[in-house]
Amino acid sequence: MSDFNLSQALEGPLNLEDNGFEGRFFNMTEVQDEIFSIEDGLALLVSRNPKTLRHVAILLLAANRMRRGLSCCVRGLREEELCSAIMDSLVTETTVGTQSSSTTVTRIFHRLNSVTQCTLCDMVQKDVVYSSDELKLQAITLQGGQGERKVNFKMSKYMTLSDGVGQTVVLSIGRDLHMSCSLEDGKATLLLERCDEGELKKISDDGDMDRFLFFKRTEGVSQNSFESVKCRGWLISTSWEEESKPLEMCEVDSANRLTCFKLN
Q1: pLDDT, mean over the chain
Q2: Among the ranges 77-86, 127-136, 224-233, which has the highest mean pLDDT value?
Q3: Interacting residues of 86 by C-beta distance below 8 A, sequence separation 6+
Q4: Is the model's pLDDT at 215 over the cut of 80?
Q5: 81 three-state secondary structure
Q6: Which is it for the CA torsion 240, 242, 247, 248, positive or negative?
Q7: What angle do CA 221, 225, 244 make, to 5 degrees?
Q8: Where are the alpha helices (DSSP H) in the chain?
Q9: CA 185, CA 156: separation in Å to the nearest integer?
């Protein structure tokens, strides 16, 4: 019987040299190709040669994760959309951070040259629309032919020495209208505020401008949540059942609130 432990192998580092596998792992004379069908129109080509059980387990886990992620995709994706869906299902978005011995560390968020245009739709198919009269965002189930009511957001990405909680973004409408979150009487409030784009090029968390920043986290292929940088633990949300209600901030796991959105 082999003394191979699957759980230890999956958790441990892949060290080919220490285990004497490097020579035959790269021995191309023994390579064999095999094709696995994952979804309609999608196959996985595996070039293989003698490996350990750990290599096989990692391959199976990756293929199964890909299959679960793609099962919720819409059929008929374009090639670039299919490629993006595959990468989203296999890659977990991570921000690498550093720690300091100081009790108070000021972080500076620098805007990157990376802007995405998108609309937001919650997990029960309510789209986010904008009421210019009241400067409010609402979640509404739109009927056919009403697609022009969706808000086209400009999502700008920021970089900082973070603590690994997600990609930092600013959500804007046009050039000078931006989502913000501030704490009022112990409750986080979501607002639309006017602010010149130039003032958001570099943001420090030791002032009040970090109210415009949100941590974006992505799960699977299309579930995105937005947590306030200034008010940690508070997320952008919509009502679970009620129509035409404004977007609000809610705490994690709040009842009757939806905190995941699809970006279209």
Answers
A1: 76
A2: 224-233
A3: 66, 69, 70
A4: yes
A5: helix
A6: negative
A7: 110
A8: 6-11, 16-19, 22-25, 53-70, 79-90
A9: 29
| 45 belongs to a structural domain | yes
Question: Is 250:257 a contact under the CB 8 Å cutoff?
Answer: yes
The DSSP symbol for 108 reads E
- In this structure, of 53-57, 64-68, 162-166, 215-219, the range with the lowest mean pLDDT score is 64-68
Indicate yes or no: pTM above 0.70. no
Residue 13: C-alpha distances to residues 3, 5, 22, 41, 53 (Å) = 17, 13, 14, 34, 14
Identify the H or E element spanning 47: strand 42-48
- Contact at 8 Å (CB) between 221 and 72? yes
* Residue numbers of the domain that contains 46: 34-90
Quick one: 201 and 147 in the same domain?
yes
CA distance linking residue 121 with residue 158, whole number of Å: 23
The answer to whether residue 27 is domain-embedded is: no
CATH of the domain at 128: 2.80.10.50
Asked if 116 and 84 sit in the same domain, the reply is: no
Structural tokens at position 66: 């890909």
Amino acid at 176: D
DSSP per position, 205-245:
TTSSGGGG-EEEEEETTTEEEEEESSSTTEEEEEESS-SSE
pLDDT value, residue 5: 54
At 160, is the pLDDT very low, low, confident or very high (cuts 50, 70, 90)? confident
Instruction: Calculate what percentage of the chain has a pLDDT beyond 90.
Output: 39
Which amino acid would we find at residue 67? R
As a whole number of Å, the end-to-end CA separation of the chain is: 52
